[in-house]
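Hi U.,

Before I forget, here's the chain from the pilot set. I'm dumping it here mostly so it's searchable later in email.
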Amino acid sequence: MKKIAFIFPGQGSQSIGMGKELYEKFPVAKAVFDAADEALGFSITELCFNGPEEELRKTCNTQPAILTVSIACYEVLKSHGIMPTIVGGHSLGEYSALVVAGALSFADAVRLVRKRGELMQAAVPLGEGSMAAILGLDRQTVMDVCQQAQEKFGAVQAVNFNCPGQIVIAGKKQAVETAAEMLKAAGAKRAVMLPVSAPFHSTLMKPAAEQLGIELSKITVQDAVIPVVANINGQIITDSQGIKASLEKQADNPVEWEDCMAQIIKSGATTLIEVGPGKVLSALTKKINKEVTILNVEDVASLEKTLDYLQEVH
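Structure:
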């Protein structure tokens, strides 16, 4: 058997209608949405399927919505006998990975990411923080230029090391905008301001991380039964205390996605499945490693395509 990794998307992958086809076709997917509605005390299902867009885009809604769709997709794969040997997720996606690994219960995870969204939004007032994707520059240059900008204009740093040539920066709005201009002058192909409402994974998220630590202390985290790669360092974690510490730290530290992918590939996984809405991670994977097979499951068509491929090769 080939080793299969499941990777789970983070914020920015949401779209209205996500998960609806699987909900209508598979009782296991419907059960996930029903459980989410019950855990949250409102209908995240309605928000996923019908919007409105501006509500779905709010961090406190986006996070539980993406988690719910991702776990619904996972349950459908599981019902077809497809299980991973290792899991990982980008930022918010790490919570989906931990549910699949048995470390978090789904109900706890969906409430936790709802709270995480609220805490992240509260940490920096609306309009004061910003993020930008920097394309075509190496890691060291991005970090050096951010350091120069920070000395003059306030907090800004590299926060997502997504793939070679794609690094996201975050911080105070003016500092991010200035750093983006400086990075273009330093040779970046493009600097794209991101449509997000807070500077995720930056030091400005420290209050959110501390509060998240308190929330984590209230819930039961189990040891993971499937290896999980941690965003903070790309290392495998399985022990419950390590997982708690890692999730708290993740909120105000960079996402080392390139390192996570290196660890997944090092584990021997040759087939990766992006489980959940969108294909953001699929696109990054192609830039990180051309040798691995990347599939995705977000609706009936992508599910059938993935199942067909796996039947052929396994």
